[in-house]
Amino acid sequence: MNQVNLTGRLTKDIELRYTQSGKAVGSGTVAVNRRFKQQDGPTADFINFTMWGKAAENFANFTHKGSLVGLGGEWQTRNYENNAGQRVYVNELNASTFDLLEPRGEQPQSNNTNVADVDPFSSKGSSPLDISDDDLPF
Q1: What is the reported pTM?
Q2: Given CA atoms 96, 101, 104, 109 in this order, what sign does their dihedral have?
Q3: Of 3, 10, 110, 117, whose CB neighbour count within 10 A is largest?
Q4: Nearest to 28 by CA among 80, 124, 6, 119
């Protein structure tokens, strides 16, 4: 059974596009904290996802960079040949469901240092995390 559930924070606003037939497709990246902590702080995996149809439109309308979300769907691997003739493999979550895990516009405030509770996108803390597209591993 191919079923994936992830909980994390969006690294940027959802990129919403439409196919030629008018079907919505949203894509983005979710930062999912690992269960262990390294010396320099929490460690996260940055996982790409796509979402289709009305779910993608709703997700884009109700979330923003830093939103805590739950995503459910199937893991998919696809490949294509790039302009240089090299085979490129892409692994991503094909999300079909989502949950908004905090009230809209509200950022959690916690002094707990448990890695599962750390908000890397919060401006309230000793060392906020600033993620640019250059920082992402893909």
Answers
A1: 0.70
A2: negative
A3: 10
A4: 6
